[in-house]
Amino acid sequence: DTAVSQTPKYLVTQMGNDKSIKCEQNLGHDTMYWYKQDSKKFLKIMFSYNNKELIINETVPNRFSPKSPDKAHLNLHINSLELGDSAVYFCASSPTGTAEYEQYFGPGTRLTVT
Amino acid sequence: AQSVTQLGSHVSVSEGALVLLRCNYSSSVPPYLFWYVQYPNQGLQLLLKYTTGATLVKGINGFEAEFKKSETSFHLTKPSAHMSDAAEYFCAVSPLNTGGFKTIFGAGTRLFVKA
Q1: Most distant pair of Cα atoms in chain A: their distance
Q2: Which of A18, A50, A73, B67 is the 20 to 30 Å CA partner of B24?
Q3: Which residue positions in chain A have pLDDT lower than 50?
Q4: What's the pLDDT band for B27 if we cut at 50, 70, 90?
Q5: Which of A97, A99, A106 has its CB closest to that of B43?
């Protein structure tokens, strides 16, 4: 069983479109995250959720809207896609919002905006 | 603000040689420290972490790291590189005062292993 899964793995779309990425974890973790990895491999936190509640929003444009229907799912919806949104988006989870716990990452979704 | 610096965006070693990847953090209070590895087209996975206790931490695949508070460093080493170690390596810190909700990653170091 895949611990943290994301769909789709690849997403190619045009500027101005709206798209969603889904994430599910079967580890029973309380905390989930979205990260953006740019072409230089730099990894930046976008959002943290704990028990379906938004904890961290790292100055992400409001075109990005995360939604957590339950503790096992954290989806990312992006409106009015721009060229600069092209990146790999990673979902991750950890047992709880405690700093000593490592994060478990999904395989990533490569978004290409043309 | 907390930051993580990884010295060298690229490191190249020969197979069988020592691997040394450097990581320094900035914090007046030592955070929790992590090393993650990312193989091509995959997500990150944990290599090892330091929380408390022994400052020399052993991880998977023969890697280890030593926490040195006086130097604010957490360098990653492996005595003998293998071709399968070629990957991107990320040092990360989790400040104690963020409850684990905000992990800060370094820029990454790409390890090349030559035959």
Answers
A1: 40
A2: A50
A3: none
A4: confident
A5: A106
